[in-house]
Design goal:
Ribosomal Protein L15, Chain: K, domain 2, elongated
């Protein structure tokens, strides 16, 4: 049976008491030296003596990240719709990806006005149109 002598040793070291007289070894200046900034007050984390802090310099280098920006919007021309779709088909993100007009998942697809569209197609609500393309479709 394990006894108390086999318990792991714990560190119960009390905090060093400074400023308790010359005989303590940490009296008078309390181990901080004589003069200077560090002998008086605490310096906040990241303070570099008036120089621009490292974290601020890194922010400048990195730039900002626009959270509202669209990552990728693909453009599809009317000519492509004319060649790849049949009369009465529905144009959506999935059908465009299946036909190879859109490579992968993107934020949106915009129909552009290059070419003519003679077929009657149905468009899903996520598809957007440029102004000249709207005029050609109407």
């Amino acid at each position: 049976m394990d006894g108390l002598h086999n318990l792991p040793k714990t560190v119960d070291k009390s905090k060093k008491r400074v400023g308790r007289g010359m005989r303590s070894g940490k009296g008078k200046t309390s181990g901080k030296g004589r003069d200077g900034q560090k002998s008086r007050d605490k310096i906040r984390v990241g303070f570099e003596g008036g120089q621009m802090r490292l974290i601020q310099r890194l922010r400048i280098l990195r730039g900002h990240n626009n959270l509202g920006a669209h990552s990728f919007i693909m453009g599809v021309n009317l000519v492509q719709l004319e060649t790849f779709f049949n009369d009465g088909d529905t144009v959506s993100m999935e059908t465009l990806a299946a036909k190879g007009l859109v490579k992968k998942a993107v934020d949106g697809v915009k129909i552009l006005s290059i070419g003519k569209l003679t077929k009657k197609l149905k468009f899903s609500p996520e598809i957007k149109f440029s102004e000249p393309a709207k005029k050609k479709l109407v």
